[in-house]
Amino acid sequence: MTFNDPVFQQAAQALATRMTREGARQTGDRITNALNFGARSVLTRDLTSTELAALRKLEIKAGMGAAATALLNIDAALTR
């Protein structure tokens, strides 16, 4: 998958929708919950504090879709 592939964009949008929905279901910080849900779905692990901080900044600036795209583009996700 690459950024220009329409399937990649559809997968990122579907992941962002699930992240938003699941993040709202849990107690605590909605954004952190959503980002960790996405990481567990894609990477099968929670985010490190550095990854979480970077994705949180991206989500605030560009939205959950951008954060989902970034998660799908992490080397660990691409080489699985």
What are the SSEs and their pairings?
Elements lengths: L5 H20 L4 H14 L5 H14 L1 H10 L1 H4 L2
Helix pairs in contact: 1-2, 1-4, 2-3, 2-4, 3-4
In short:
By secondary structure, the protein is mostly helical. Helices cover 78% and strands 0% of the residues. It has helices at residues 6-25, 30-43, 49-62, 64-73, 75-78.
Task: Describe the protein.
This protein is mainly α and 80 residues long. The chain has one domain (6-78). The protein has 5 helices and no strands. Helix 1 (6-25) crosses helix 2, helix 2 packs across helix 3 and helix 3 packs across helix 4 (64-73). The chain is globular, with a radius of gyration of 12 Å. The mean pLDDT is 89.
